[in-house]
Amino acid sequence: xRRTLVFLFWFYSLTVxxxxxxxxxxxxxxxxxxxxxxxxxxSVTFTCAIGDPSPEWQFLWYRVVPFRDxxxxxxxxxxxSTYSLELLSDSSRGAGGSYSLNLTGPEQRGVYVCxxxxxxxxYYTGYSNPLILWFSDPDSTGHLSVNPNRSALFMSESLSxxxxxxxxxxxxxxxxxxxxxxxxxxxxxxxxWENGTCHIKAVSHYDGGIYWCQSxxxxxxxxxxxxxxxxxxxAYVIFVTDTRPTIYDNRFQFxxxxxxxxxxxxxxxxxxxxxxxYRVVPFRDGLPEAPHRSGAARQSLELLPxxxxxxxGTLTLNPAAPEHSGLYVCRAERGEPAYxxxxxxxxxxxxxxxxxxxxxxxxxxxxYFENEPVSFCYNGDYWCQSxxxxxxxxxxxxxxxxxxxxxxxxxxxxxxxxxxxxxxxxLGQYTSTSDPRWRILWYKIVLYREELPTxxxxxxxxxYSLELLPDSSEDGGSYTLNSVGxEHSGVYVCxxxxxxxxxxxxxxxxxxxxxIDPSPKAALTINSNRTQYFQSESLSxxxxxxxxxxxxxxxxxxxxxxxxxxxxxxxxxxTRDQSTCNISSLDVADSGVYWCQSxxxxxxxxxxxxxxxxxxxxxxxxxxxPAKGDTVILKCDASGSSSGWRVHFYRVIVPxxxxxxxxxxxxxxxxxxxxxxxxELLSDSNREAGGSYTLxxxxxxxxxxxxxxAQRPNSFSYTPYSNLRHxxxxxxxxxxxxSIYPRTSPFFEEFESVSLTCEVKGNSSxxxxxxxxxxxxxxxxxxxxxxxxxxERPCNLMLTFVDSGLYWCQSxxxxYxxAVNISVHGQPxxxxxVTPNNWGTEGSSLTLTCEVRGSTTGWSxxxxxxxxxxxxxxxxxxxxxxxxxxxxxxxxxxxGAGGSYPLTPASHEHSGVYVCxxxxxxxxxxxxxxxxxxxxxxxxxxxxxxxVSPNRTDFLQSQSLSxxxKGLGNLxxxxxxxxxxxxxxxxxxxxxxxxxxxSTCNISSLDTYDSGVYWCQSxxxxxxxAVNIxxxxxxxxxxxxxxxxxxxxxxxxxxxxxxxxxxPFPGVRFHWYKAVPVSxxxxxxxxxxxxxxxxxxxELLSDSSRGAGGSYTLxSSAPEHSGLYVCRAExxELAAYAEYSHPGLLTxxxxxxxVWLDVIPSRSQHFVSEPxxxxxxxxxxxxxxxxxxxxxxxxxxxxxxDKKSQMLDPSTCNISSLTLSASGVYWCQSxxxxxxxAVNIxxxSGNVILESPVHPLKEGEKxxxxxxxxxxxxxxxxxxxx
Length: 1282
What we know:
1282 residues, 0% helix
């Protein structure tokens, strides 16, 4: 009799959320059989703990089930499934906090969760951590073999899958991660099916998913999951050498005689890579061609001597010589047939003092701008090379875009005489300070003169001249006018110019500068005497000149980008009549500054004109469906219009399809083609802007469509018409009635058929069916619509989204029927789910459930199984995978008509892919087919076991792990499989898993994502026990030292040193050390500062063991206890030591030592940027002392500390400019470890510090405290303490 092995393990990848929960209380779910293998008939007891023993708590127990709308739900991380939480039917027996489960069958497999509840008021905790109950899969009937035998592949790798089993006619099938069903050969990509084997030439991310073999009779093999990584592996050439090359962009330059080691590496965690190293040479037949971009010269790859697929991809150039210079490429390959990837070329250059040829460049420089007349146009390295491989010198060329000049700085408003103004010109990164070869030139635009440089306005094409400003290049990127006058008014530009080599930028965009003239020679007048206008208005501007002088003209500077300078007439809407300029129809682009200007350069006053967009009225009708006799209000909102505008309301008096865009225009256009002839002005409709129009007692005669528009004051100019709105008065006895078949509801699904009929009362004629869609589209029946027919009575449509809108019947005389607002929704989607999950066991109960838009109401359901294309069945086509298949209606599909189809008892024949859909109505209307769902039915498995070495379940990052399959059967047919973070994979799992040999999987360097459940599985599907492996982050295993009560105490104080790690690891013990000068035989520790490392040795304290628990106490501290302490954590069970902690400083003050630290200036607080001198003064002049410090950021270092410090003599340290990071404790220390007193130095960035003594005072000494300010601050208060 075969036993089913069952066990429990933590499952961290599942997250659950609930309603009305307390986020600060999260229960902990545990069990009494942790890591034990359980068999059928055993019992397990769950415990739900919240840390509160109050008897008011009641505990609730849940099981994770496929998604149901009536249950709390969340989405699984992988995105391939959803789940809900179902309250256990006997949850109440666990209300006290414990729930026992007798293992009676594999159907109890699943994920369990608990939470707690209180009454009055009702309060729920959050959900606990989930706990999963695991059991093995059964034997399979067929056999699927995979080559290469792994689950993880890169894109473009080849893959072969072979099917074998009893009988013939086996096919390979798959369901991908995109839930797509297909059969080999797969039409996406290059695949073939030959003699029971499917060959995929180059896998893509569409190929990831579950694969299985299936016979014509329905027999199924085991499933195999393939994971395809969405990017190719990338090879690189790297240096493995102590020689530091000089790096020029992508070139690595070495000295002749250096030793250069190159290695080929690949950014892949997969193993089994083989490497080849090549040198790029001129193209030669018989050699592999080097990868190159389109249009580039062809080159070849020459295999380097000693490079082979058996090598590690390493090449040594020793000694490096000029003939080694060139491009190197590596190739990484794996598998048979080989998947390979080439690295990008790496240029290695060995300097040659006397090359065989010399590369010269004209003009002789290495920096060029685009479009210069040179023979190259790309950044890069250039050299000469002979056919025999000899090389010249190498030159790096840099080609960049020419800089653009940008002028900014003139104020937006007017200046008055005497003001000072600065103009600024920028060339981006090229300024007169960063590149002295560039200078800025400043110009004023003046009327055209032949002797001056020409400037053509790009926007208006007007031609002007440029007048160079005096001293324009003296101030770099700025030009200052210290006391401006009216003569400075005008338009300015700048540009950059370079002498070596000669070059210049384009002129900048012009900028206007205007200075108010209190007595201008001319005046600019405007006919309407205002400066704010709307589009299409007219404007006249006149130049009134004193003494009737001639030679004056109107000019303007517009603001719209790009800024433009032009003279009247500005464009074809402008006419000129002597001194008057007439603009017949203003546009927004006419906004700008206008003035009059004489030929001699004199100016009138300037006027700033602003032209705004016309307001766009919006019409609102309320209510739109009134009853006869109701009051209706029409409101027109013309926001943006100025005071005095009038609003008019209109009724459309012609069929609306004649005033809306035709079929040849944009379907979604909202512009109305209305005119005076198609609208009727409502009586007394003239209203103030924003006003409303009231229809006091509406009747059927008011039914129709309405618009509004606004009129400018004292003008015949109008805004465009507003949006079109309908008003439909409900008529209890309309002359015609619009009826809908097959049902009266106005709500339809896409592709449903509907018939609309105009039923006319009496003998009136000329009725047609009309509509106005939600996309502002008007038409009548059969109006250029292929799906519509019209035979004077019914109008038949196959509805789509664009058919949503208002439908009615209308006579030639303008009578209306009732109106119907039809709403069309998309064809409803179906969703298929499998409960309790997709993977069942022989004899268990599985249920397929189908819903349409989350409901089963009003629908009956049909169930299908995906089969090969079959005669007599509709053939479906998957456009993504280009896979043809048939949907075979399940024989007893009526069993699931209500939305649930049971597979009871489940058997292996039920395995396969299913879909469902809903139907309703007569004729039948169908929902969409549901996405595919895979059902897999499994059974019991034989016994074997997984052996773990070292024999534990907790590991640290980078540690190694071996997993071996032991037990019955042919061990060569077994592999180690795992489930980690929702992913299933076989050994080798990644690049650290080493070799898979003799049923053992070695993971040489664990990482946190290796945490998960591991088991052995045979090719026939047998399963071993499972082991839950947890890998902890190294960051959590760092030693952290704290000193309390603080690091500065007096002699005799009690000091406690505490050491901890980031996570509660089991069996942690701590070791205690004191930092001493570097000593042979003691561990060496380095502590990196900002600019250098401080190295010191650590000496184990003789009584370190008394602090093994994490706390080391000095009950009576003395000066000799002063120093730096370090701790280190050890987990004996994991055979692992944490890194040494950062040092913790302890300073114990006592009697005056034999050496002391002198501080100049003698105070404990200092300003940023101040100098500081520290000198060691000792009674014993023969001892060499160094100045050491320990900063607030826990950096330990000796002087010199950084670039701003130096040793003036062996015992004196000078810091030229203090920074905030210099705050810390300073002392003198000898090579033997003797110490001086310690001094606390604090650096401040403010303006005031407290001047206080740097050394402790004796009792009775005088103390003076003073507030010290920076040199600019006059602060003199002081305090004397006697």
